[in-house]
Every structure is written in C-alpha cells, then in structure tokens.
Amino acid sequence: MARARRRASGFLRDFQEFALKGNVVDLAIAVIIGTAFGKIITSFVEDVIMPLINPLVSFTGKDWRTITISPGIKIGEFLGAIVDFVIIALILFVAIRALQKFKRQEEVADEPLPDPNLVAQERLIGALDRLNQTLETRNNQVL
Predict the structure, then answer these.
(1) How far is CA 129 from CA 50, 63, 104, 136, in A?
(2) What distance, in Å, lies between the first and last C-alpha atoms of the chain?
(3) Distance in angstroms (rounded) separating the CA atoms of residues 55 and 133
(4) Number of H-type helices and E-type strands within the chain
(5) What pairs with residue 62 in β-bridges?
(6) Buried b vs exposed e over 105-115: b needs ≥16 C-beta within 10 Å?
(7) pLDDT-derived band at 125, boundaries 50, 70, 90
(8) Which residues cross the membrane (predicted)?
(9) Which residues are CB-contacts of 77 (< 8 A; sequence separation ≥ 6)?
(10) HSE of 137 in the Cβ direction (CA atoms, 13 Å)?
(11) Residues 72-81: contacts with CB within 8 Å, 24+ apart?
(12) Which residues are bridge partners to 59 per DSSP?
C-alpha cells in the first residue's frame, strides 16, 4: 500500500513539474487566445464581410453560406471556413513578419560597436603597409 502511494505521489509530482513548466503554460495561453481570436475572425467574416459580399454572390436569393449540394453537404459553410482560414493565415503572416523584422533590428542593435581606437590602428597599419610597398618599388626601380 505504501509503495502505491509513493508511485502515485511520484507521478503527481512529475506531472506537476511538467504542467508548470513555462512551455506548457505558454502553450495553454496560446490555445485560449487562439480560440478567442478564431471567434473574433468568424464574427468579422459573418457580420462584416459577408453582408457586403452576399448581394454580389447570392444564389437564388439565399445567403451563400446556406448553399447545400445535397442533404448534409454544406458547401456554403465550408467556403465560409476557408474565408476564415485565409484571413487568420494572412493576419498571422503579417504578425510573424513584423516580429521577425523587429527581432532582426534587435540583433543589429545588440551587436557591439567596434572600438574606434582599433579601427584607427587598423587603418594606420594598412596605410603604413601601402607606403612601405610604394617605397620598396621605388627603391627597386632606382637600382
């Protein structure tokens, strides 16, 4: 009996450590926000976009989302889900692109600037090397 309790408490402890890790909590928050965002997009499509498009694509005077091919095959709802997906994909693409651009700017800002003294020394050494080469070529031409 004591052995079973230790196993159960060990399992619960392991599960607690797993569930409270940052990645799992972040994932749960992302799922909740994603669900809410999906509802917002669905409402946007159904209540804002479709009333503007329905007069243009109406099929026998009905809302295009109610179009069915045969009993049970709801083509209109399927097309509405595709419109929802395209809008969500477009918004995610724009958001991810903006985050990547911001991250690149952060990486460029994080790079340390070179020491001006080292840059000046490198330029001076380069100039001295060119001067030395020029003097050697002139000495060789005189001889």
Answers:
(1) 73, 81, 37, 11
(2) 103
(3) 81
(4) 5, 0
(5) 59
(6) eeeeeeeeeee
(7) very high
(8) 20-41, 78-96
(9) 65
(10) 6
(11) 80/45, 80/46, 80/50
(12) 62
Give SS3 for 112. coil
Task: Calculate the alpha carbon distances from 1 to 8, 11, 13, 67, 118 in Å.
Answer: 11, 15, 18, 62, 72
Can you give the pLDDT at residue 118? 84
SS percent in the chain: helix, strand, coil, step 5: 85, 0, 15
Residue 132 scores a pLDDT above 80: yes
Name the residue among 55, 33, 51, 54 with its Cα closest to residue 43. Answer: 51
- For 90-108, how does the pLDDT look when each residue is reduced to its tens digit (9 = 90+)? 888 888 888 888 888 877 7
Q: What is the mean pLDDT of residues 25-31?
A: 78
For residue 63, what are its two tokens?
């809302």
Residues 38, 84: contact at Cβ < 8 Å? yes
The Cα–Cα gap between 48 and 58 comes to 16
Residues in the chain: 143
3-class SS at 139?
helix
